């Protein structure tokens, strides 16, 4: 089973074992600009996604 | 990654400080840094009555939460701008109200519509950019409530990314006048004004968002303001974050070193005139807020005739 990534209402699948930092690189996001959450826990960029887990990327940047 | 202080699972990796922290130690450090900024830049005293401008977003609520945790006497001010699109004002007002209620804090709600008979979007109709009108309205209301409520300082939730991106924008244009005025504490230059302070100026946007999440603060994302013209500021923030990726600590260095050298920039002392209508300091006979109000009312009368 793959892992799921959610960002700004979009969803994509990645292979289990993928690191959060690889997901960020793939999506062209800076780690300074997003927070990674798996379930209710915040995780650092070296975290490896497991089968069936959902990684939620929360934007930390606001305009104005 | 493990917490540098206790070896528990880390929730954030602060590369600029070579520090990974668990929830508990992250919160502890966040509060330490807020206190450090308050002392280093003499932002306020223990006994100060503080008015925190809250928008319902992560930064202002995180600030209010942190000041309260540190034992400061801080009340909140929510300015209801009357933005009906996407229910923005109602939703953000509810977030601010719920936050205050849950923590037993005093929130002052100031409705622009109730007070002046027009909402912020109505005030700007036909004239300038929304965000610039919004800024004029918010500034006026903050000054007024701070004065009338007997507060000593006005605190806003500007974080390091906000400050560094504004600084970059000012320097890209060599707007030395604006750069000279950028500071964690802007002194009151008129008896009706109160000093404006930014206690989160040493913390990144990621840190304030993480703090809000870890503390269980329910906030509205600023991006959701339907008028958000933040495109330029977001682009600058993203550019700084790219640099930060390569050289962690650049944002903090850029900003804090600027504060050390700030004196090389000069700004004209604002004229000490007072607005004929509201009495607050003003560049002309009427302040920019009262001019807005007058123009909108004149437009209204024309329509009625
Ligand atoms: S995005 Fe613009 S209009 Fe919306 S709250 Fe911020 S300054 Fe006001
Ligand atoms: Zn720890
Ligand atoms: Zn006025």
Give an account of the 3D structure.
The complex is a heterodimer of chains A (64) and B (305). With 64 residues, chain A is mainly beta. Chain A is 12% helix and 38% strand. Chain A has one helix and five strands; from the N terminus they run ββαβββ. Chain A has one helix at residues 20-27; strands at residues 3-7, 10-14, 34-38, 41-43, 54-59. Chain A starts with a strand and ends in a 5-residue tail after the last strand. The model of chain A has no long low-confidence stretch (mean pLDDT 93). Chain B has 305 residues and is an alpha/beta fold. Chain B has two domains: 43-269, Rossmann fold; 274-305. Chain B has helices at 23-40, 58-69, 88-103, 112-116, 120-124, 130-148, 160-172, 176-181, 205-214, 231-246, 250-261, 288-304; strands at 12-14, 19-21, 49-54, 73-80, 107-111, 153-155, 185-186, 196-197, 273-274, 281-282. In chain B, β1 (12-14) and β2 form a beta hairpin. In chain B, α1 (23-40) packs across α9 (205-214), α2 crosses α9 (205-214) and α7 (160-172) crosses α11 (250-261). The radius of gyration of chain B is 20 Å and the shape is globular. The interface between A and B is medium-sized, with 21 and 37 residues. The structure holds iron/sulfur cluster and zinc ion (ZN) (2 copies). The site of one zinc ion has 9 residues of chain B, from α12. Residues 3, 5-6, 8, 21-22, 24-25 of chain B line the site of one zinc ion.
């Amino acid at each position: 089973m793959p892992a799921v990534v959610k960002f700004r209402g979009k969803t994509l699948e990645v292979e289990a074992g993928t690191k959060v930092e690889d997901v960020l690189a793939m999506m062209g996001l800076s780690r300074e600009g997003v927070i990674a959450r798996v379930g209710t826990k915040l995780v650092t960029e070296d975290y490896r996604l497991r089968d069936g887990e959902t990684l939620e990327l929360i934007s930390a940047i606001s305009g104005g | 990654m493990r917490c540098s202080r206790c070896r528990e699972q880390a929730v954030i990796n602060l590369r600029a400080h070579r520090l990974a922290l668990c929830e508990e130690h992250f919160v502890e450090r966040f509060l330490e840094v807020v206190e450090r900024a308050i002392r280093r830049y003499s932002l306020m005293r223990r006994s100060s009555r503080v008015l925190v401008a809250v928008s319902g977003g992560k930064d202002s609520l995180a600030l209010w939460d942190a000041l309260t945790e540190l034992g400061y006497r801080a009340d909140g001010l929510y300015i209801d701008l009357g933005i009906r699109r996407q229910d923005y004002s109602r939703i953000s007002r509810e977030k601010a109200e719920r936050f205050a209620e849950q923590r037993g804090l005093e929130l002052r709600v100031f409705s622009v519509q109730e007070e002046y008979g027009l909402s912020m979007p109505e005030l700007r109709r036909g004239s300038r950019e929304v965000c610039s009108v919004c800024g004029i309205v918010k500034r006026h209301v903050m000054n007024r409530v701070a004065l009338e409520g007997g507060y000593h300082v006005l605190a806003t939730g500007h974080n390091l990314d906000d400050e560094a991106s504004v600084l970059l924008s000012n320097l890209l244009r060599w707007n030395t006048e604006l750069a000279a005025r950028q500071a964690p504490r802007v002194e009151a230059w008129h008896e009706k004004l109160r000093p404006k302070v930014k206690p989160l100026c040493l913390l990144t946007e990621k840190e304030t968002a993480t703090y809000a999440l870890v503390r269980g603060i329910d906030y509205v994302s600023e991006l959701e303001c339907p008028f958000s013209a933040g495109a330029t500021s977001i682009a600058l923030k993203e550019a700084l974050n790219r640099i930060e990726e390569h050289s962690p600590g650049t944002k903090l260095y850029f900003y804090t070193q600027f504060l050390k050298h700030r004196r090389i920039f000069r700004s004209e002392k604002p004229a000490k005139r007072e607005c004929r209508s509201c009495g607050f300091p003003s560049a002309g006979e009427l302040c920019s807020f009262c001019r807005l109000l007058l123009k909108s009312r004149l437009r209204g009368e024309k329509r009625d005739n």
